[in-house]
Amino acid sequence: MKTICKFGISFLTPHRKIHAFGILLIIFISILFNMNGDYWSIQYCPWILVISLLLIGFIGITGFRINNISIGKIDMLFIVFTSYIILSIILNGKPFTDKIYVFIGYFLFFFIAQLSIDNKENLDLIWLGLILILFAQAIQGVLQYVGVISPANIFFTITGSFINPGPYGGFLAVGPPILIYYCNKYIQRKMFYYSLICIGLFILTAIVLSGSRAAWIASIVGTLFMAKNLWFQNMKPFALVNKKILTCIAIAFLSLFLFFLFQLKMDSSLGRIFIWKISLSIFKEHPLFGIGYEKFGVEYGKYQAAYFQSQQGSSEEVRLAGMNYFTFNEYLKILIEYGITGFMLFVVFIYGVIKLILTKNDTCEQLIVPLSVTITILIFAFFSYPFSTIPISLLFFLSISIISFYEKKQNQFLTYKLPINSLSKGFFCLVLVFMVYNVSMKLKAIRIWQHAQQNLLFREKQSWLDYKNIYSLLDNNGAFLFNYGAELSAGGYYKESCLILNKTEKFFNSSDLHIILGNNYKKLKNYHMAEKEFITAHYMVPNLFTPLSHLFELYKETGESKKATEMALKIYQLPIKVYSDKVKEIKTNALDYLNEAK
């Protein structure tokens, strides 16, 4: 028996709950491949996600009878923004970065999710399933904090399945608003109600322990929005209070809270301000159309190096600087990568969603939760990088998708009727099959890369052959290119390493990359280029001792005693940010040289 979905898709099966489980499965997969936070999990995660979405899309095309496709205002704005990004990637030239596949995955997820939200039961299934996922993450984080299990990143006490506490806290931050909604909904079902309370306390504990100030702020704002819609929307005492007084009180409390958070981790706060300072210098040079999709992490190090090389940096900025790949403000990142043009398209897209808050739709039962989740993530985006974290991005696009679905039920903007014929169906299937094949080949190449890297010492000849064979498939993967170049350098293939690493700079950049390049040129007796690369590595992160040590050794080898003495003195005077045996050795060598030079 066929049932008709209101937005124009007729299903061949009445078992719609499977679609909701599919959405939860995608979110779970994105977390599962973050589980260890190790190098290879990070490489596999985006591709597993994309191929899962492509397969679901293929099943959707072959399993659903499509009568027409309803495109609402939010859908149209999202399509326009996506089209701009794709155009930006094309105009930046080949080879395209592999990361474009992740954005294609989000695009598919946005529309696939709308197949799963045709009734309240499916929505409840999705949100309650998400609560269980959040609860599992909270348990994992608390157990990490008390030392029962090890965190994914040994430098932190709590990370859940994420690489550090920031995105972990941001992922959990959506929990309190959702839990408040369902606690209010099921308050009469005491056993279920108290279970939700216990889960909520666990999640709150994990958010606090994460130490993510951005997550605290985001969760508070999202929770207040939920509370306002559930309890305070129609309360007359609040309507009678002078709005100006309430505004002043809110601003005062917010200012005090932000000041407290600033003081709580002052170095971290100052570090982010410095990152924004360098980031703005990138925007100033590319104001209209930006530097291109996912180029911030590549370009930031260059601009930071140029800033310090111009002698503008203060001693405090030298101390705070690090090898950074995130803006810690997603809106600034959009401005930098897509320019004013892309930023305005994004603002219009988000405005199309947020304006629902100012209408009667914000009291619609189906919209309260997705709006709260969206607001929580948008607030988190002011101070962190949720759109660079796959699980949080999926939550964001899921929420927007739900909002778009119900917006279309209220006011349909455009309907395009896609006739059922072999040509249209075959075309979309062909595109998806082609993409599945490409992604499968990428996954296979990463698997070969992993084996080649791990067996290089035992099967050297075969490993080098494997690297060479998969190069054409992964020549736009910055992590692969860097690893390939580094292994070539370690194996003594210095010229080949230089070729690969110079290409790597288009997709990945770091002080380590320039140190390896410097060593390559040094081995090739190209001392001028070696000096240039070591200097670049130094100014990228001026508080590191390793680049200075390489410059010091280079000047000793080339007999430039004056420069060697200057470098030894610089090493001796440089404050230690992180103590280690290596730093101690570098300092000792520099001091010995200075004593001998007297």
UniProtKB/TrEMBL annotation:
Superkingdom as given in the UniProt entry: Bacteria
Q: Where is the signal peptide?
A: none
Its GO CC terms are: membrane
Q: How does it sit in the membrane?
A: Multi-pass membrane protein
Question: What Pfam families does this protein's entry cite?
Answer: Wzy_C (PF04932)
Q: Spell out where the chain crosses the membrane.
A: 18-35, 41-64, 76-94, 100-118, 125-146, 166-184, 191-209, 215-232, 244-262, 334-354, 366-383, 389-406, 418-437
Q: Which organism is it from?
A: Solitalea longa
**Protein name in UniProt:** O-antigen ligase-related domain-containing protein
Q: What is the lineage of its organism?
A: Bacteria, Pseudomonadati, Bacteroidota, Sphingobacteriia, Sphingobacteriales
Alphabetical keyword list: Membrane, Transmembrane, Transmembrane helix
Question: Which residue intervals define the domain O-antigen ligase-related in the entry?
Answer: 201-347
InterPro entries listed in its UniProt record: O-antigen_ligase-rel_domated, TPR-like_helical_dom_sf, WaaL-like
Q: List each coiled-coil range.
A: none
Compartments annotated for it: namely: Membrane
